[in-house]
């Protein structure tokens, strides 16, 4: 028998009356409506962590509020299976003259948890939130206190479905790390998590799957890497000319900036025979070839590469100046290549190459061309499986005594 999903929506729609409603009513017409969410069909299996991406106003918060029950659909249906703990509009929900203790008790009452059960959880909530005095008014605390308290209360009161709006960015890095550790534990315990965030690194690190909302409609649903690439590609297309025209060799997720005296015209990942590849074997040697064209004369040019993992963490980077190499003065119209030969001692997984042209030892002074996520490639395992970000040749011996 197929397991019931934790969350299911069928043709879910939610609209709100437009702000200017007086004139249509005076004229006897139906007031216009703003559709915040339109025809969303989605099924989230129990235990899955789903990232929700989209611009401001795309319908992300409305979607979470419909699932939590705080809003009723205009049409369609939403079904949930499990105890829901929302962290939505946390900054406003946990501020004002109330104390932390009264907020916790009010939240528990809303989800039908008895006071006696809550009191047994207070120490854990205090430890998670970092709040030591529960009777001090919230309005006298830092602005992020409401978020900390909302998160700590939700994750401590035994959630089966956790709804997180884009709130962690309001807190300090130490608390964010604590949140990520706690969410990792909840994932291993089988809690279903819906996570709204503009931080793509957090989405990549936490989520098994992602969806993209645009103007209230579901436009992408798939693996985290696929949907984040689709979102970045959409941002590139709407960047108002800040990004150069797409180059077919570049990945869908590329972002490009620079002043333009020298440009990267193509990028190739090659094996030792010069054949273009997209899949690498751990420990083998490969070449990253940057084709460069010069638009106007440059006296000082540095070529650079940077390899990042699928979470956006920097794994390795180098440039021509690090290796004592110089192009010399380059005239307008001149073309040249630079090859970076690398032994790919990387752990199996997905990686992205960033490529850049600039003057001097770094790109902060004169950046001619900078392409984030210019090339996507995959590293395949060779030999026994290992853990970590890199693959180090190793030998192991056992000495019996």
Attribute tags:
401 residues, alpha/beta, Rossmann fold, Coagulation Factor XIII, Chain A, domain 1, 2 domains, 18 strands, 33% strand
Brief rundown of the structure:
The protein is of the alpha/beta class and 401 residues long. The chain has helices at residues 22-26, 60-68, 90-93, 100-110, 115-119, 122-129, 145-156, 173-188, 200-206, 224-237, and strands spanning 7-17, 33-44, 49-53, 75-80, 84-87, 161-164, 192-196, 209-214, 217-223, 255-257, 262-270, 279-281, 285-294, 302-309, 314-319, 335-343, 349-358, 367-380. It has two domains: 7-236, P-loop containing nucleotide triphosphate hydrolases (Rossmann fold); 247-380, Coagulation Factor XIII, Chain A, domain 1 (Distorted Sandwich).
Overview of this protein structure:
The chain has 401 residues and is an alpha/beta fold. The chain folds into 2 domains: 7-236, Rossmann fold (3-Layer(aba) Sandwich); 247-380, abc- transporter (atp binding component) like domain (Coagulation Factor XIII, Chain A, domain 1), CATH 2.70.50. Helix content is 23%, strand content 33%. The chain contains 10 helices and 18 strands. It has helices spanning 22-26, 60-68, 90-93, 100-110, 115-119, 122-129, 145-156, 173-188, 200-206, 224-237, and strands spanning 7-17, 33-44, 49-53, 75-80, 84-87, 161-164, 192-196, 209-214, 217-223, 255-257, 262-270, 279-281, 285-294, 302-309, 314-319, 335-343, 349-358, 367-380. It has a 6-stranded mixed beta sheet with strand order 5-6-7-3-8-9, with helices on both faces. Strands 10, 12, 14, 15, 17 and 18 form a 6-stranded mixed beta sheet that branches. Strand 8 (209-214) and strand 9 (217-223) form a beta hairpin. The longest helix is centred in the middle third of the chain and has 16 residues, at 173-188.
């Amino acid at each position: 028998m197929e397991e019931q999903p934790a969350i299911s929506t069928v043709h879910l729609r939610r609209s709100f009356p437009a702000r200017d409603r007086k004139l249509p009513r005076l004229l006897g017409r139906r007031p216009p409506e703003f559709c915040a969410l339109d025809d969303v069909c989605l099924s989230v299996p129990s235990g899955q962590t789903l990232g929700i991406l989209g611009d401001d106003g795309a319908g992300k918060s409305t979607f979470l509020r419909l699932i939590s029950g705080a809003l009723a659909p205009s049409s369609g249906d939403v079904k949930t299976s499990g105890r829901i703990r929302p962290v939505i509009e946390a900054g406003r929900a946990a501020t004002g003259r109330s104390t932390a203790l009264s907020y916790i008790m009010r939240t528990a009452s809303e989800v039908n948890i008895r006071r006696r059960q809550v009191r047994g959880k207070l120490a854990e909530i205090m430890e998670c939130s970092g709040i030591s005095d529960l009777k001090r008014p919230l309005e006298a605390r830092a602005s992020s206190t409401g978020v900390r308290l909302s998160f700590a209360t939700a994750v401590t009161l035994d959630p089966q479905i956790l709804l997180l709006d884009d709130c962690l960015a309001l807190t300090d890095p130490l608390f964010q790390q604590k949140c990520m550790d706690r969410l990792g534990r909840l994932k291993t315990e089988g809690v279903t998590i819906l996570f709204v965030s503009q931080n793509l690194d957090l989405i990549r690190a936490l989520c098994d799957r992602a969806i993209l909302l645009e103007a209230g409609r579901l436009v992408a649903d798939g693996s985290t890497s696929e949907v984040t690439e689709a979102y970045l590609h959409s941002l590139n297309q709407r960047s108002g000319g800040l990004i150069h025209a797409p180059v077919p060799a570049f990945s869908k997720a590329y972002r490009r900036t620079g002043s333009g005296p020298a440009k990267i015209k193509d990028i190739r990942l090659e094996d030792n025979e010069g054949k273009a590849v997209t899949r690498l074997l751990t420990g083998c040697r490969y070449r990253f070839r940057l084709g460069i064209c010069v638009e106007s004369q440059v006296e000082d040019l540095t070529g650079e590469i940077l390899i990042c993992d699928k979470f956006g963490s920097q794994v390795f980077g180098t440039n021509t100046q690090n290796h004592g190499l110089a192009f010399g003065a380059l005239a307008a119209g001149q073309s040249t290549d630079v090859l970076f030969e690398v032994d790919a001692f990387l752990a199996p997984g997905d990686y992205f190459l960033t490529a850049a042209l600039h003057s001097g030892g770094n790109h902060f002074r004169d950046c001619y061309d900078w392409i984030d996520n210019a090339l996507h490639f995959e590293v395949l395992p060779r030999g026994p499986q290992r853990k970590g970000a890199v693959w180090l040749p190793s030998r192991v011996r056992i000495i019996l005594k």
